Structures are given as structure tokens and as C-alpha cells.
Amino acid sequence: MARTLGRPVRRTTDAHPERLQEGNAVEGITGNIATVGYGLATIGPGIGLGIVIGQTQIATARQPEVAGRLFTNMMIGAALIEVLGLLGLVAGLMFT
What we know:
By secondary structure, the chain is mainly alpha-helical. Helices cover 64% and strands 6% of the residues.
């Protein structure tokens, strides 16, 4: 028997060696990884929205006469950025 962290580890000889052993620290972590993955997936769209809206405000302050076109383009960009957040949500729900 091999020893890991002072505890003996049983080796499996069945047809499925990838199955987790009892007492393994990795057991049952798949749901937690999906939650962390969705949390990380929301960071990108959040940063993207902040940049898009901030730059639109700067451009509107510099050239107020094009505010209408800038707002339209900003909304299209924001919608595309939000799609990334929704894809992260769907992926998180599919793999849990």
C-alpha cells in the first residue's frame, strides 16, 4: 500500500480505476468547480461592460453631437457582451 499524507491509499484493480477512493479530498468537488467557473465567467463581461460604458461616456463628453449613434453602438456592444455572461451561465448549468 502506498502512503499519502500519513494515510494508506488503497489501489483499485477493478475495470474503472478512475473512480475516486473513499476519503479522497477531491470527492464531490464537481459542483463547486462549476460554481467557481461561472463566477470566473462573469468577470469578463463585467469588465467589458465597464470599459464599453466608460468609453462611451468619454466619447459623448468629447463630441456631444454624436451621442445618439454612440448610444446605439454601445447598446449593441453591451448586448454582445451580455451573451458571454449567459453562455457562462448555461455552461455552468449544463455541467453541474
